[in-house]
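Entry 14. Two folds queued back to back today. First construct below, sequence then structure tokens.
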Amino acid sequence: MIDPKKLSDYPITKRWPAQNPDVIQLYSYPTPNGVKVSIALEEMGLPYEAHKVTLSDADVKSEEFLSLNPNNKIPAIIDPVGPDGDPIGLFETGAILLYLSDKTGKFIGATERDRAKIIQWLMFQMGGIGPMFGQLGFFVKFKGAEIEDPRPRERYIAETKRLLNVLDGVLADRDWIAGDYSIADIAIAPWLRPIGGIYEATDLVDFDSYTNVVDYLKRFMDRPAVQKGINIPSRD
């Protein structure tokens, strides 16, 4: 039993109180970044409690949320049983995924070589796919679409195609990006969904022409843990 006083040292728990302080506390919203962590928790079988933190300034720029993540972005977690037995709070999805894999020994490979390859592709998502696909959405679907200058839009369409081509080539001879299913897939695949979803950019980037990527996304979405985690926390 975790001493609830230890968890209450985190100011975020005053705004989003823990019903069960014994389990991992997830502060998130079902965006491509947010669902990386809920999917990982489901895949790893770790008990957790999800708190909906909307993207509004009232939530992500609140004093309580900033106390856990000064970068004011979801998701963030508190693990009540950290490496030294005391709670630990973390933000940044790459850091969280690595932490959870190290905690459980799951989805991080069987050898140091495997681990290095998985981290390589995790960094590829964090440095490339996430930022570039996010800019695609901004300039195609959201506020950036109002900008008359076509160059930003063309830049991110072209970069999205380039990154999809990288993925498609690697996936030509494997089911998962680094060999066995791993946190690299949990990081990458959720960012493929918005292209044909909220971004409505399937035709713009010729998404269906990347057949290995299309099949990869379907394999990912067919996983029971993914089907559950993709909607946690609920938008309602």
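Second construct, same run, same settings:
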Amino acid sequence: MFDLPGSWVWDYWFADDGDLYHLFFLYASRALHDPDARHYRASIGHAVSTDLVEWTQVSDALVRSDAPAFDDLATWTGSIVRHPNGTWFLFYTGSTLAPGGKNVQRIGYATSDDLMTWTKSGDAVLEASGPWYEKLNSGTWHDEAFRDPWVFADPSGDGWHMLITARAPEGPVVGRGVIGHAWSADLRTWELRAPLSAPSESGFGQLEVLQVEVVDGRPVVIFSCLAEHSTESRHGYEGGTWAAPAESVLGPFDIAAAYPLTDRSLYVGRLLQRRSDGLWLLFAFRNTDEDGAFVGGITDPMPVAWEGDRLGVQHLAPEPR
């Protein structure tokens, strides 16, 4: 497990350079006392590992910018890919406050030659806009949800795709969560496109920290959402991380058919394929204890496998020696 004694650790993502695994994570000081205050004090930390179990913290990756900037409140969750020229791109969420105290989220990026030293590109490259995505002025949600970029190369070689936690401007308020979508030819300039899923009466208010993978030959999308941010049909599940069927890495995605991969005690599930043997592993952060209090810290890897039509968590398998 990865945790810090003086800080809360929660959302995270990985990069693999072929030698080391790199863990990038959100953290904020426990001196805040209130764990709910961590979101507006988040920085992006960095740790490395050879086995995905023992981690060594290294220099932080990113902190918020000075105002005015799209990320002058906090730097939030993202993902990392490597351009064919060797440059690493860290896409992340920048948060800033709008008049009235609600936060607006946009997406920017930073680049690095070695995964250790990062340079921000400057302004945001993507933000929510109509007609496809809900804006803050709709008044239906607690923020302008447009965050958690998951970037991957097009399977056919046609540029890059980004999946985004976003909301549709219509539909049931607690079912408007959609898979936002953008495309780029070069990772620097992005074209916003229509969402890859639709709002639903059996859906979710937000599909947090999206990830799509092909696990043992079968595509699947995972995301996180708690019962209080979902439609009534989901309230009995108490899910934390969810999985949903996908026909390909670009959908269609059947969010109405989503099923819980973890309970609410584990949040922000991430899939990673172990380099040594190709085994697919699930990670999550520890969300709540038995009393409902926030915990924090990232779990050890948990193998996953298909159980019929559903992905399920298996018993831990040690890494081959």
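Quick look at the second one. The chain has one domain: 7-313. The radius of gyration is 18 Å.
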